[in-house]
Every structure is written in structure tokens, then in C-alpha cells.
Amino acid sequence: MRQSDTIQSLLNALPHTNAPIYARLKSAILENIDSSTWIPDQRLPSEAEMVNALGVSRMTVNRALRELTADGILIRQQGVGTFVAPKKAHSSLFEVHNIAQEITDRGHHHTTIVVKLQQVKSNTDQALRLGVRTGEPIFKSTLIHFEDQKPIQLEQRIVNAFLVPDYGEQDFTQFTPFAYLNTVAPITEGEHLVEAVTPNATEAEQLAIHSGQACLQIKRRTWSGQKIVTSARLLSPGHLFQLFGHFGRP
How far apart are CA 245 and CA 90, in angstroms? Predict the structure, then answer.
């Protein structure tokens, strides 16, 4: 879309209300995004172009863009411009799903890179997480999941080698660890710990983001019967991922 068309669509969507102009501008931007007139990664008109087209102050335009950026609707890149943020993937907070299936259900393509897959002797922390003795064999794997060739999740996992002895022989470019584990040791129980974190330099590089960029971290353990099968750390760029939960009142 040409910038002149983008400006025109912004003017057409501007509501005729008594609301403050910055709020009306936010509404017009949201209307264009919600209607798919503006698509993810599309560049918005510059602040100067909006100021000239709307006849308002730069402070007004800046406030609207700043608030929409804080809400994750827009992405602002210093010296480059303001863009429509990619639509966030979301997973249920109360269920465990296969990320490959979630991506497919969104109509996108899932691929995986296996960074590491090895058997090691568990240290004290790993043994506690899996409910085994220190020094017992476990599997460690590190994978990067991609959605349409864009990294969306870094998966670091340890697995009880006694319960899943063939884990290290699997080709996880063809199916996910979740799919395999749920076949050989079906999930009967699970737990999540969700945090906002800052990735280290290596993790940021693997996710193709800046090292200071916020990420959503999920620490997850799952059981089959009375035994802990796996403990995983799932790290996703905050601007690409969200969790959703629904609950009823008792």
C-alpha cells in the first residue's frame, strides 16, 4: 500500500466524536489493523506525515503511537519507522498443546532446528526437577521452533531416560518432543510457571531478537502417572507470543 493510500485510510477511519484527538487517532489505527486494511509488518506513515495530514501537534501523534506500542499493537524502530506488530501466537494457560499443531491451525508452516540432543548424567538441579537421583542418566535437548521461517520459541528440555529410553534416537525435525512424549508416556498431570524475562546473548541470537528484548518464559513439568517425564523451559519473544486462559466462577 502506498503511503498516500495509508494516510487516506487513516483519515477515513478517524471517528467523528468529542474524544481527544490522540484517542481518535488510536481508534483509527486500530480500525485499519482490525479490518486488515493494514497488515502485520506494514510501515505506518511517519509522525511528520500524520501531523501534516491531521493538522495536530507532534505530541498528540507521538502519544497515540507510544500507547499503541506499549500495548503491543505497533513496533517502533529507531531511525526506521513504526510498523504494525505481527499478530501474537497464543496458547492456553491451563492446557498443554503441540506448538507444531498450533502453528498449523493458524494456517502457517512449522519447522524445527535441533541445536542439541544428548544423554548426560543429571546434576543436582536436574535431578530435583525430574524426581530422580543425582547422576542418573537423562536426556537434554535444545530446539528452535519456527513459524513461517521466523523463530517463535526456544525449547530447552530434560527428559527422564528411564521412562523414555529412546528419546535420544528421535528425529525432532519431523515431529515435536511434545508429540513423541505424549505417545510413549501420555500426560496425566502438568504444571506451569510463567515469567517475563530478558534472554541472554545466545538466546537472543537464536530467537533473532535484541538481547534486551522482553521474552515470555514458561517452565513446564509434566507427569505420566506418578512419574515426572520431562521438565522444559520454553522461551518466546514477548511481541510474538501470549497466553490465554478462561475460567468460570464457582
Answer: 10
Task: Report yes or no: 168 and 200 within 8 Å, Cβ to Cβ.
Answer: no
pLDDT in tens, 51-61: 999 899 999 99
Q: Which of 46, 44, 40, 52 is nearest to 28 (CA)?
A: 44
Taking alpha carbons only, the member of 6, 227, 69 closest to residue 138 is 227
Instruction: Give pLDDT, residue 95.
Output: 55
Closest-CA residue to 85 (of 30, 149, 17, 154) = 30
| CB 211, CB 200: distance < 8 Å | yes
Q: By C-alpha distance, which of 159, 204, 152 is closest to 178?
A: 159
pTM beyond cutoff 0.85: no
113 within 8 A of 151, measured Cβ to Cβ: no
Over 70: is that where the pLDDT of 90 sits? no
